[in-house]
Amino acid sequence: MEMTPRWPTMFGQGKFEVDGLFEYLFTNYDLNDPVGDVDGGNIFNDTSEMMDKFRSVVHIKFNEYLTNTIGKTIEDFGDHEMKAWITGHGKDYSMTIHNHSGAHISAVFYVLAEDKYSGGSIVFTDPRANANRGYDTSFEQLFAQHEHIPETGDYLIFPSFNYHHVNPYYSEFRICIPVDLYLYSNNDV
């Protein structure tokens, strides 16, 4: 029998490095009250050389994801916007289940996540609402949540519609940078 996957939700995962990024964020941002998306903040409005380096790395990673999933790059679209903010800081940090409505592709870059034994995992749920209703438990693997325990230098890229949450983090300090990519089609794509 030929098997064909339907409704795939592709996740990208890897390592990144931008020398001096942690020090730059620590020196130039109030990490006790960081720039957040709820406030309309976007650290990519920072035009410093350091943020240009980070923005370039993010752009490359998004292009790798798009190439591997739909065979296109950001440049194939009419225009685009990237929004980034700082989160994941402080003891007892957590984030309720949410998605990144309005964006096309989202990512999270873990600038500092040294204590992987203190919680703070990110958990993704099956985006197919009610797909698991009524199934015997032997089918659980088809609907299992995906949990990632972050380490410094990790990044994850995923479709923005995918619901996820962050479990409580019990250590003192961690820095994550979520990034949303908005693509504006020129109808020639």
Overview of the structural elements:
This protein is an alpha+beta fold and 189 residues long. The protein has a single domain, classed as Sandwich (Jelly Rolls), CATH 2.60.120.620. It has helices at residues 21-28, 49-70, and strands at 12-15, 79-84, 93-98, 105-112, 122-124, 146-148, 154-159, 164-169, 175-184. A 5-stranded antiparallel β-sheet has the order 1-7-4-9-2, covered by helices on one side. Strands 3-8-5-6 form a 4-stranded antiparallel β-sheet, with no helix packed on it. The longest helix has 22 residues, at 49-70. It is globular.
Which keywords apply here?
9 strands, alpha+beta, 2 helices, 5-stranded antiparallel beta sheet, 189 residues, Jelly Rolls
Helix count from the secondary structure assignment = 2
Count of beta strands: 9
Q: For this structure, what is the CATH class? A: Mainly Beta
Tell me which CATH architecture applies here: Sandwich
Shape: globular
Radius of gyration in whole Å, from Cα?
17 Å
CATH homologous superfamily placement: q2cbj1_9rhob like domain
β-strand amount? 25-35%
List SSEs in N-to-C order: EHHEEEEEEEE
CATH topology: Jelly Rolls
Question: How many structural domains are formed by the residues?
Answer: 1
The residue-averaged pLDDT reads: 87
Low-confidence stretches: none
**What class, by secondary structure content?**
alpha+beta
Summarize the SSE layout with pairings:
Elements: E1 12-15, H1 21-28, H2 49-70, E2 79-84, E3 93-98, E4 105-112, E5 122-124, E6 146-148, E7 154-159, E8 164-169, E9 175-184
Antiparallel strand pairs: 1-7, 2-9, 3-8, 4-7, 4-9, 5-6, 5-8
